[in-house]
Amino acid sequence: MSPAAAGHEATSGDAVLFQRMRVHDEQSSPTHTYNLRPGGSGRDHERNRDVDSESDSESDSAATATSGSGPGSGSVSGSASNADTDSNHPTTARTMQTSNTESSCPDSLIVVSNRQPYRHTYDEGAGTDEENGTETTGTSDSGSGSDSDSGSQSRPQNGADVGPNSNTNPISVDEPTGGLTAGIDPVLQEANGTWIAWGDGDADFDVTNQRDCVRVPPDDEAYTLRRIDLSEEAVDAYYRGFSNRVLWPLCHGFAELVEERSDDLEWYRTVNERFAAAVADHASDDAVVWLQDYHFALAPRMIRQTIPDSASIAQFWHIPWPSPATFDYCPAHEEILEGLLGNDLLGFHVERYANAFLDCVRRFLPDATVDHEQGTIQYNGQTTRVVATPMGVDAASYDQQARETDAEQLLSLFDRYDIPRNSAIGLGVDRLDYTKGIPERLTALEGFFAENPRWHGDFTFIQKATPSRTEIPAYARHGDIVRSEVDRINRRFGTDDWQPIVYTEDYVEHEDLCALYRHADVMIVSPLIDGMNLVAQEYVAASVETDGTLLLSDRAGAHERLSSHALTIDPTDVSGFATAIGDALSMTPQDRTRRMDALRSSVFGGDIDDWMATQFALLRRVHGDGAAGIESRERTQPM
């Protein structure tokens, strides 16, 4: 059997390759009209703004507001790159079976995140977000900041002409299309809740009221979006600074990359105060506040001091949590822990991160009472329950969108990147982040091509990389290394008709991404560490022919769910990694199908709706609704 045949047994010419594919129907986008404030501005420039009510969110477009300086200043404006798309502890809570997620949603829900679900911009080239548990395939930076990589992305969906006294350009609205943001959005629509996030769009505050609130979605107005604006100085210190120069590398085990800068911690504290004040503006006696990710480590304690005692506070930490030895490098580590212990409920993707958090509390807060068996912490008269609940993806949506891709769509991608049409395909989809193991992956690919010349011309690896946090030197250096390595490997093995690695930082349309997922013979997900990593699950959900193979790092949170039927790799063992690539390409069709069927069962059985239902069951339990308790506390074993 030829290498090409080994990679594409199901292929017998283009007709066979695409015989089960359907053409996606184009849908038109509705338009919306916004009532702007007098003079064309959504902001009341005369009002006095409460410093503590300011806050942040993240995205790659510029957000403009009034000026300010220093951590204690008032209303401020700014921009930032948005990047980052991780039960009862130590057991993993199992989801109660519910017909829909909204039915278990607590009343008076307030969601707090960096990334906002809807963003208003005057330009048509609005950027994309990759945080909040999601990672975009665009060229900008994501979301409430999560390292759970995902190929989902936001696109400008809706446009509207605005009034004669305003900016004459149309307003576009980015709407959530995947990941955590898309999962929470319909829940808040059902609950008529409140979402507090950074307003980073240039038209964001031209459509809000004097409390910086706007009803969303634009065509339904089902819940309130409260927007917070930040100065460039605040964004640089709080987001690019403490969040991503200290907490991100530290939590991912890169203590040597921690960079302390003056004022970063103070700005981080100030922004957390502003979010906390905004929560207090909206919290009722029975409110449930749900914070997302590492940008708000100090906010829970602040919120607890300003809202009614009967209200509940929870937080999901989407990235890993480090060992005590690594966490010791964290500036103000006691303050960080005390802030997080303002939560009634604190969630992680996997059990080892929950255990690490308990270990850190035991070591650095000697006055705390830590119960590892029950997963509880008693501190300053409050109990915090620590849980582990692995996050899923919208599996049904990826399955459907993959089935709707057509032949011309995939062939146009092959033509765009000069890929031979009969080539077997490998795929990587990542943010350009030093945690993702891309250089190690490239070294493994180089070893594979060196040891397997028969695959030259018959196997092409596509690496989709999304530039992220490029203002941070460690990220800029990492991007340079990756591009240089791709060029070197292609010079070594490439020919006039074939390049072993197709590298692109282009924006990839979601439909094109699903087409690549569907037809990739090998998907490589090889982070050095990841809280979860949703790309692995997206690939499985879109593998409708069940003829692809997943290579998965043993250091990704997703490995605990998918390890038994993926090919496990150690991303630092490049020799074993290279061998695994060859094993994946030479696997029999029967073995590939058997493995993928099992993976799909797992991904569909633990999708985003299942995860959301578990979160709300836990939130209701913490909030005092015993009838909504978790059905089982037994430890969930990997498949």
From TrEMBL:
Residues 1-184 are annotated as: Disordered. Residues 134-152 have a biased composition (Low complexity). One of its GO terms (biological process) is trehalose biosynthetic process. CDD domains: GT20_TPS (cd03788). One of its GO terms (molecular function) is alpha,alpha-trehalose-phosphate synthase (UDP-forming) activity. Signal peptide: none annotated. InterPro entries: Glyco_trans_20. Residues 88-116 have a biased composition (Polar residues). Residues 42-52 have a biased composition (Basic and acidic residues). This is Alpha,alpha-trehalose-phosphate synthase. It comes from Natrialba chahannaoensis JCM 10990.
